[in-house]
Amino acid sequence: MNRQERMIDLIDQMENMFSGHPWYGQTWIESLERIPVDRINFRLAKGPSIASLLEHVVIWREYVVSKLHGDTGAHMEPGMDWSEEEISDTAWQELVRRLVESQQELLEGLSELPASELQETVPGLAYSWNFMLQGLIDHDAYHLGQINLLTKQVISA
Protein backbone atom coordinates (compact mmCIF):
# COMPACT_ATOMS: atom_id res chain seq x y z
CA MET A 1 0.00 0.00 0.00
CA ASN A 2 1.50 3.33 -0.98
CA ARG A 3 1.20 6.42 1.23
CA GLN A 4 -1.81 7.86 -0.60
CA GLU A 5 -3.65 4.54 -0.29
CA ARG A 6 -2.71 4.42 3.40
CA MET A 7 -4.12 7.91 3.95
CA ILE A 8 -7.38 6.88 2.27
CA ASP A 9 -7.44 3.77 4.47
CA LEU A 10 -7.04 5.81 7.67
CA ILE A 11 -9.83 8.18 6.63
CA ASP A 12 -12.09 5.26 5.69
CA GLN A 13 -11.50 3.59 9.06
CA MET A 14 -12.39 6.80 10.92
CA GLU A 15 -15.50 7.42 8.84
CA ASN A 16 -16.70 3.81 9.11
CA MET A 17 -16.29 3.68 12.88
CA PHE A 18 -18.05 6.99 13.34
CA SER A 19 -21.09 6.69 11.08
CA GLY A 20 -20.42 4.15 8.36
CA HIS A 21 -20.61 0.38 8.23
CA PRO A 22 -17.86 -1.15 10.37
CA TRP A 23 -17.48 -4.92 10.09
CA TYR A 24 -17.49 -5.37 13.89
CA GLY A 25 -20.84 -3.83 14.81
CA GLN A 26 -22.20 -0.45 15.78
CA THR A 27 -20.78 2.94 14.92
CA TRP A 28 -20.20 5.74 17.41
CA ILE A 29 -23.45 7.37 16.34
CA GLU A 30 -25.51 4.18 16.66
CA SER A 31 -23.93 3.35 20.00
CA LEU A 32 -24.47 6.77 21.55
CA GLU A 33 -28.11 6.83 20.44
CA ARG A 34 -28.75 3.61 22.41
CA ILE A 35 -27.46 4.90 25.75
CA PRO A 36 -30.21 5.94 28.18
CA VAL A 37 -29.13 9.40 29.36
CA ASP A 38 -30.07 8.55 32.93
CA ARG A 39 -27.44 5.75 32.87
CA ILE A 40 -24.40 7.62 31.52
CA ASN A 41 -22.72 7.49 34.93
CA PHE A 42 -23.23 3.71 35.29
CA ARG A 43 -20.10 1.73 36.06
CA LEU A 44 -19.31 -1.88 36.90
CA ALA A 45 -17.43 -2.29 40.18
CA LYS A 46 -14.60 0.26 40.16
CA GLY A 47 -14.36 0.54 36.38
CA PRO A 48 -14.97 3.68 34.34
CA SER A 49 -18.47 4.93 33.61
CA ILE A 50 -19.91 5.30 30.14
CA ALA A 51 -19.46 9.07 30.49
CA SER A 52 -15.84 8.83 31.64
CA LEU A 53 -15.02 6.50 28.74
CA LEU A 54 -16.49 8.94 26.24
CA GLU A 55 -14.67 11.86 27.84
CA HIS A 56 -11.39 9.90 27.68
CA VAL A 57 -11.93 9.23 23.97
CA VAL A 58 -12.78 12.87 23.27
CA ILE A 59 -9.71 14.15 25.14
CA TRP A 60 -7.40 11.94 23.07
CA ARG A 61 -9.13 12.90 19.83
CA GLU A 62 -8.77 16.61 20.68
CA TYR A 63 -5.10 16.01 21.48
CA VAL A 64 -4.51 14.46 18.04
CA VAL A 65 -6.41 17.34 16.42
CA SER A 66 -4.12 19.81 18.21
CA LYS A 67 -1.11 17.93 16.81
CA LEU A 68 -2.62 18.01 13.31
CA HIS A 69 -3.01 21.78 13.72
CA GLY A 70 0.71 22.07 14.46
CA ASP A 71 0.62 22.51 18.24
CA THR A 72 4.06 21.18 19.15
CA GLY A 73 3.51 22.09 22.80
CA ALA A 74 0.43 19.91 23.23
CA HIS A 75 1.13 17.06 25.63
CA MET A 76 -0.67 14.55 27.82
CA GLU A 77 0.25 14.10 31.45
CA PRO A 78 -0.78 10.98 33.36
CA GLY A 79 -4.31 11.39 34.65
CA MET A 80 -5.23 14.28 32.34
CA ASP A 81 -7.33 11.95 30.22
CA TRP A 82 -9.51 10.34 32.93
CA SER A 83 -12.22 11.73 35.18
CA GLU A 84 -14.26 9.68 37.60
CA GLU A 85 -16.74 12.45 38.38
CA GLU A 86 -20.37 11.97 37.46
CA ILE A 87 -21.69 14.34 34.83
CA SER A 88 -25.07 15.93 34.14
CA ASP A 89 -27.29 15.36 31.13
CA THR A 90 -26.16 18.75 29.81
CA ALA A 91 -22.49 17.84 30.21
CA TRP A 92 -23.20 14.55 28.38
CA GLN A 93 -24.70 16.42 25.44
CA GLU A 94 -21.61 18.64 25.39
CA LEU A 95 -19.37 15.55 25.31
CA VAL A 96 -21.32 14.13 22.38
CA ARG A 97 -21.05 17.50 20.61
CA ARG A 98 -17.28 17.50 21.20
CA LEU A 99 -17.02 13.97 19.79
CA VAL A 100 -18.84 15.04 16.62
CA GLU A 101 -16.68 18.16 16.35
CA SER A 102 -13.51 16.12 16.85
CA GLN A 103 -14.57 13.82 14.02
CA GLN A 104 -14.97 16.76 11.67
CA GLU A 105 -11.65 18.26 12.75
CA LEU A 106 -9.82 14.94 12.43
CA LEU A 107 -11.10 14.44 8.90
CA GLU A 108 -10.22 18.03 7.97
CA GLY A 109 -6.76 17.65 9.50
CA LEU A 110 -6.17 14.40 7.64
CA SER A 111 -7.25 15.97 4.37
CA GLU A 112 -4.63 18.69 4.91
CA LEU A 113 -1.82 16.33 5.96
CA PRO A 114 0.21 15.35 2.91
CA ALA A 115 0.30 11.57 2.52
CA SER A 116 4.06 11.90 2.06
CA GLU A 117 4.30 12.93 5.75
CA LEU A 118 2.60 9.81 7.18
CA GLN A 119 5.96 8.26 8.05
CA GLU A 120 7.36 11.54 9.38
CA THR A 121 7.71 11.99 13.13
CA VAL A 122 4.91 13.93 14.83
CA PRO A 123 6.48 17.18 16.12
CA GLY A 124 7.24 16.83 19.82
CA LEU A 125 6.71 13.05 19.84
CA ALA A 126 8.81 9.96 19.15
CA TYR A 127 6.57 8.29 16.59
CA SER A 128 5.10 8.82 13.14
CA TRP A 129 1.78 10.29 12.07
CA ASN A 130 0.80 6.87 10.75
CA PHE A 131 1.51 5.26 14.14
CA MET A 132 -0.42 7.95 16.05
CA LEU A 133 -3.42 7.94 13.70
CA GLN A 134 -3.73 4.14 13.62
CA GLY A 135 -3.31 4.18 17.39
CA LEU A 136 -6.19 6.63 17.72
CA ILE A 137 -8.40 4.42 15.56
CA ASP A 138 -7.51 1.35 17.64
CA HIS A 139 -8.04 3.33 20.85
CA ASP A 140 -11.47 4.47 19.67
CA ALA A 141 -12.48 0.91 18.74
CA TYR A 142 -11.36 -0.46 22.11
CA HIS A 143 -13.29 2.11 24.13
CA LEU A 144 -16.32 1.94 21.83
CA GLY A 145 -16.43 -1.77 22.66
CA GLN A 146 -16.30 -0.97 26.39
CA ILE A 147 -19.10 1.57 26.02
CA ASN A 148 -21.21 -0.96 24.13
CA LEU A 149 -20.66 -3.61 26.84
CA LEU A 150 -21.66 -1.17 29.58
CA THR A 151 -24.68 -0.06 27.54
CA LYS A 152 -25.76 -3.67 27.16
CA GLN A 153 -25.56 -4.04 30.94
CA VAL A 154 -27.69 -0.97 31.64
CA ILE A 155 -30.29 -1.83 29.01
CA SER A 156 -30.72 -5.39 30.29
CA ALA A 157 -30.67 -4.37 33.98
Description of the molecule:
This protein is mainly α. It has a single domain, classed as dinb family like domain (Four Helix Bundle (Hemerythrin (Met), subunit A), Up-down Bundle). Helix 3 runs parallel beside helix 4 and helix 3 packs antiparallel against helix 5. The protein is globular. The protein starts with a helix and ends with a helix.
How would you briefly describe this protein structure?
It contains five helices and no strands. The chain is mainly alpha-helical and 157 residues long. It is globular.
What topology emerges from the helices and strands here?
Layout: H1 3-19, H2 28-34, H3 50-68, H4 89-112, H5 129-156
User: How do the SSEs run, as a string of H and E?
Assistant: HHHHH
| CATH-scheme architecture | Up-down Bundle
Helical content stands at 55-70%
Give the overall pLDDT as a whole number. 94
What is the CATH topology descriptor? Four Helix Bundle (Hemerythrin (Met), subunit A)
C-alpha end-to-end distance: 46 Å
The fraction of residues assigned to DSSP E strands is under 5%
What is the count of structural domains?
1
Largest sheet at a glance? Answer: none
The parts where pLDDT drops under 50 for at least 5 residues are none
- Specify the structural class: mainly alpha
Number of helices: 5
Taken from the alpha-carbon principal axes, the silhouette is: globular
